[in-house]
Design brief:
Immunoglobulin-like, single chain, 6 domains, Ig-like domain-containing protein, nine-stranded antiparallel sheet
């Protein structure tokens, strides 16, 4: 690590805090504090067995990482750092914006093995080491190294250091696998960077002195302005690789440490599952079709092959053995092949040719190859397999099958087959193109289409296939009219389809009603049968046609509640009827007749009794009738008489002021006032005024009365007026 005065760092950190950096964006998730076994197992891929893992590292300095969105180049894996691996709130680790500083001193010891690489003593080491048993002749893994030293301390006198030390059979001592591609130069801040010396004592000679070609700018990623990784720079994805002897035990030490002081931090990201050994694969090659589960070849016309690959080239040729299986017989269904293939020196693959032989038709046959690992640590080990199918004829199939369409419509023909084949359809009528694999078809009448498939230049016989298209006319649909009826009534649903063949019917309606009949009678319908009845007419190949019938079932009202009898005064006003409900019809009799919406008007110029009948309607539905009796009779007013004058002179005629009323009525109160408003007489029932006040005859003239009469039927009548006293 390039030396940086603490005063300068303190100023840098204070400025960062003043600007109030927020929380991490969450583009890189880091889970810190993992165990040695968990970290080692996270790295191990195919062909590697992990043993005896150990970890010498502060808990906060290691962890798993998983990428959501980042420019790191690796999706997941483990991270080893000289500071913090995971960001926690405002305390930053490796996952955060590059504008912040994740520097932290964990107080851990250094790694003496890294002192030479760092050109300084080291501190805060994080070391993961374990034994491994590779099943192949090469081990490799992918990684990215990043550091806060980039830009400010580039080309400094020392750098944070890291290494991947491997040791074991055939390896002299411990060798560092973290090398610049194609060189023996270790990966450091001074060997991979942007070529610009840092502002804190950087000198380009410190970079160029690392070896020929240093600094290697082509492997550098400038992360200034980055939002997911706090390191201001990091390498592109690099690969650590080393030759090994299969099935032997090797030791791998992954180590990183601060150099010089514990200020700026560094970290190494190692891809999950990328610690692998040499692997062998086999793939089959021939024609490919959506109807075939594997590549295929055809008897008598063309050949296929298997390609056996190894992960890296060797300086010498290598023989790879395989087992031959499948339903096809070696030497009978195809030209005989050996049980091994030789991968040439400095190459990575070899080809096994499969030439199918022309034999009597026997159905499809499979050729399978099972590759045996040349480095089987525990006996015979199959590492990969592949299948090649041999067909008797060209492999095509019309996937649609026989089809029915509606006149005027079209559909996509779907043929499973190789696109390198030639396709010819007959007849051409109704096809968008008769010379393509999957034309659009829209015939106007029933047609059988014949497909002829050929493979130009292959020598294969053409294959003929066909399918039939039936054409149904577009149906015309007529349904019954909308209906309104009364409760307990009947209604009918009817649908008429033209032409009257090749169709299906589906009715759906209220209360889960469903039917496939074209004519349906309903009896004693209740109000819950109201609603829309939808009919769907299905004709094969045609778009379903829908129509509907609206049914409304009205409830029949009950007999109205009425007030009866109603008394009407002789020569009085017409009666006011009290009838429950609305929409009434009036009748003169209990049955029959024509109802009127106008209430009846009984004659009031003569006393008598009348009976009328009323019903309630709901739409066209009418309920039972209720009777109302109307009685025309003399009322309280008819009997009431108040004289306008009287002569209290003792002659026996009109000597008193007497109010005449009905026989069942009651004189509640009578008050007499003089012209000055003085009450001079006040009596109730049974009293007549004799024209005196205080025992003395009143003067001749006009007086005022206020009379209150209680009628027999409960009504009170008040009369006011003048009476003249004559002597």
């Amino acid at each position: 690590m390039c030396f940086l005065r603490k005063e300068a760092l303190s100023l840098f950190l204070s400025g960062s805090l003043l600007f109030g950096f927020g929380s991490v964006s969450g583009q890189v998730n880091v889970t810190g504090g993992q165990t040695a076994l968990a970290l080692a197992q996270k790295l191990a891929g195919p062909g590697i067995t992990i043993q005896n893992p150990s970890l010498t590292c502060p808990t906060v300095a290691n962890g798993f990482f998983n990428i959501v969105s980042s420019n790191l180049g690796i999706d997941s894996g483990i991270i080893l750092t000289t500071g913090r691996a995971a960001t926690s709130g405002s305390i930053y680790g490796a996952n955060g914006p590059a504008s912040v500083n994740a520097s932290v001193n964990n107080g851990a010891a250094g790694d003496p093995q890294l002192n030479t690489l760092a050109n300084a003593s080291t501190t805060n080491a994080c070391i993961l080491e374990f034994d491994m048993v590779p099943k192949g002749d090469t081990v490799k893994f992918e990684y990215v190294f990043g550091s806060e030293e980039y830009n400010t301390s580039t080309c400094g006198i020392y750098n944070d250091a890291f290494a991947f030390f491997i040791s074991g059979p055939g390896i002299s001592g411990q060798q560092n696998m973290a090398l610049v591609p194609g060189t023996n130069i270790p990966v450091t801040v001074n060997t991979i960077n942007n070529g610009i010396p840092g502002s804190q004592g950087g000198n380009i000679s410190n970079c160029t002195s690392m070896g020929a070609g240093s600094p290697f700018t082509q492997y550098y990623v400038d992360n200034n302005g980055g939002t997911s990784i706090t390191y201001r720079g990091f390498t592109k994805v690099l690969k650590a690789i080393h030759a090994v002897t299969p099935c032997n035990t090797y030791h791998l030490k992954m180590t990183i440490a601060d150099a010089g002081n514990a200020l700026f931090d560094s970290g190494v990201f190692i891809k999950a599952g990328s610690l692998k050994t040499t692997t062998f694969t086999v793939t089959s090659h021939g024609l490919v079709s959506s109807s075939a589960s594997s590549p295929y070849i055809v008897k008598g016309c063309g050949q296929g092959n298997f390609i056996v690959k190894r992960a890296a080239a060797l300086a010498t040729a290598q023989t790879v053995k395989y087992q031959i299986g499948g339903t096809a017989v070696n030497g009978v269904d195809y030209t005989p092949i050996a049980d091994s293939v030789v991968i040439p020196a400095n190459d990575t693959q070899a080809t096994v040719i499969i030439n199918p032989l022309v034999t009597p038709s026997s159905g499809n046959r499979d050729v399978k190859i099972f590759v045996i690992s040349p480095y089987s640590c525990n006996g015979l080990e199959i590492v990969d397999s592949a299948t090649l199918t041999i067909y008797d004829a060209l492999q095509t199939k019309i996937m649609n099958g026989d089809t029915t369409i509606c006149n005027g419509s079209s559909f996509q023909v779907n043929v499973a087959g190789d696109p390198s084949y030639s396709y010819s359809w007959s007849p051409v009528v109704g096809l968008s193109n008769s010379n393509i694999q999957n034309p659009m078809a829209g015939p106007t009448q029933a047609t059988t289409y014949v497909l002829t498939t050929s493979w130009p230049g292959s020598g294969c016989a053409p294959k003929v296939d066909s399918f039939h298209v039936a054409v149904n006319p577009q149906p015309s649909v007529t349904v019954s009219a909308d209906q309104t009826l009364c409760e307990n009534g009947d209604f009918n649903l009817n649908v008429s389809v033209t032409p009257a063949a090749n169709y299906g019917i589906q009715w759906n309606g209220p209360n889960g009603f469903s039917s496939t009949q074209d004519n349906i009678d309903f009896t004693n319908a209740q109000t819950n049968a109201s609603g829309a009845y939808v009919v769907t007419v299905l004709s094969s190949g045609c778009v379903p046609i829908k129509d509907s019938v609206s049914i409304k079932v009205n409830a029949v009202p009950g007999a109205p509640t009425v007030v009866t009898p109603i008394a009407v005064c002789f020569n009085g006003e017409l009666p006011v009827y009290s009838v429950s409900g609305t929409n009434h019809l009036w009748y003169s009799g209990p049955t029959g007749g024509t109802g009127s919406t106008d209430a009846p008007k009984p004659p009031t110029n003569a006393t008598g009794s009348y009976t009328y009948y009323v019903s309630e309607t709901n739409g066209s539905c009418e309920g039972p009738r209720s009777a109302i009796d109307v009685v025309v009779t003399h009322c309280c007013e008819d009997y009431l008489f108040v004289p306008s004058a009287f002569s209290p002179n003792g002659d026996g005629r009109n000597d008193v002021f007497r109010v005449t009323k009905g026989p069942d009525d009651k004189l509640v109160q009578i008050n007499i006032f003089n012209r000055w408003g003085q009450l001079i007489f006040s009596r109730s029932e049974g009293a007549d005024w004799d024209g005196t006040f205080g025992g003395q005859p009143v003067e001749v003239g006009d007086y005022f009365y206020d009379i209150l009469v209680g009628c027999a039927r409960g009504k009170l009548i008040e009369r006011k007026g003048e009476v003249t006293v004559i002597r």
